[in-house]
Amino acid sequence: MKKIYAFTLMLACTLGLTINAQNVNNPGFETWENLGSETEEPTQWNSFMTAGGSLTWAAAQQLVRSEVVRPGAAGTYSALIWSRETFTIVANGNLTTGKINMANVSPSHVDNYNATVSADPLFSEAFTADPDSIVFWVKFVPASGTTDDTARMHAVIHDAYDYRDPSGSDVNGPAHVVADATGHFTKTNGLWVRKAVAFVPGPAATPAYMLLTFTTNKNPGGGSGGDSLYIDDVEFIYNGIGIQEAAVEGSFSVYADRNAGQLTARFNFNQEASTVVSIYNIAGQLLVQREKNLMNGTEVFDISSLNAGIYFMQVTRGDGTRLTKKFALR
């Protein structure tokens, strides 16, 4: 944990940024409710036992507090979810910050989903930050023992809307996505493994909630009964994401076209001044730098040598004030 935050602070100092960091509630699954009963759940997280929908009568316990933790963990517990099979139908283990809706016997039906319920703080995770990536620890043990079965993590930062996962459950949902991180992973051979998944920007602009879900299979109804997934220590990396810009009389915008290998920056300042334009990668490494007198107009940068990922353009004006913008190459 300390190494992650030290890296974040180092990058902040390098780029002169202010980081707006936030994590989900109970990220280490240390606090639980209704322990010892079939309805036990980690605080601020939900499973089938608190689901809604017409089929809640069929819900069964598929979540328990576990004392199996990763080496070096600061906490004492993790969350364990598992799948179960009834009449050849597999119900994937499901742990979410939202609320599960159970309404159809076909696992892949659009009426089965997890959702943010913004009116109820028990089934919604208020989240107003803009992280670069999500990091978590898992131990995945498929009952089949093969690498064919694949577990899933899906984190969706969205605006003030009751977003549903999977998105096919609501055709209007994708327009409300601020950023999306999807991670699929196969068996971990009995070991705890640290996973890091980058967020991909979406069309919406104002983060309000995060819907975070872990399931024992990427496909609804996939896998086998008895697939087990241990989860622990969820956190977020803020490598300059969520930047609060310095007060500058003016602004700039960036547009990246990876197919053309070009980044176009449009500047709109109130007066001409000597300006240094720098492009950094996510590790804070300087990749491109150009200095010239700027006021209004556009500058085009060659980015054909850059790989897919998250980058930052920083504009430093003659008086020392800075503006920084994030851009993604896909």
**Kindly state the mean pLDDT as a whole number?**
87
**Biggest β-sheet description:** 5 strands, antiparallel
In the CATH classification, which architecture of the largest domain applies?
Sandwich
Low-confidence stretches: 1-19, 240-248
Shape: elongated
- Compute the separation of the termini in Å: 28 Å
What's the helix count? 1
Series of H and E elements = HEEEEEEEEEEEEEEEEEEEEEE
Output the structural class.
mainly beta
Number of strands: 22
Task: Round the Cα radius of gyration to an integer and report it.
Answer: 22 Å
User: How are strands sequenced across the largest beta sheet?
Assistant: 3-4-17-10-14
Query: How many domains make up the coordinates?
Result: 2
Percentage of residues in DSSP E strands: 35-45%
CATH class of the largest domain, named: Mainly Beta
Helix content: under 10%
CATH topology of the largest domain: Jelly Rolls
Explain this structure to me?
It is a single chain. The protein is elongated. It has a five-stranded antiparallel sheet with strand order 3-4-17-10-14, with helices on one face. A five-stranded antiparallel sheet has the order 7-16-11-13-15, with no helix packed on it. It has one helix at residues 2-15, and strands spanning 32-33, 41-42, 63-66, 78-82, 84-86, 89-91, 94-96, 99-101, 113-115, 133-141, 151-158, 164-165, 177-185, 193-198, 200-201, 209-215, 228-237, 250-257, 262-281, 286-302, 309-317, 322-329. It is built from one helix and 22 strands. It has two domains: 22-237, Sandwich (Jelly Rolls), CATH 2.60.120.890; 250-329, Immunoglobulin-like (Sandwich), CATH 2.60.40. It starts with a helix and ends with a strand. It is 4% helix and 43% strand. β19 (262-281) and β20 (286-302) form a beta hairpin. The protein is mostly beta strands and 330 residues long.
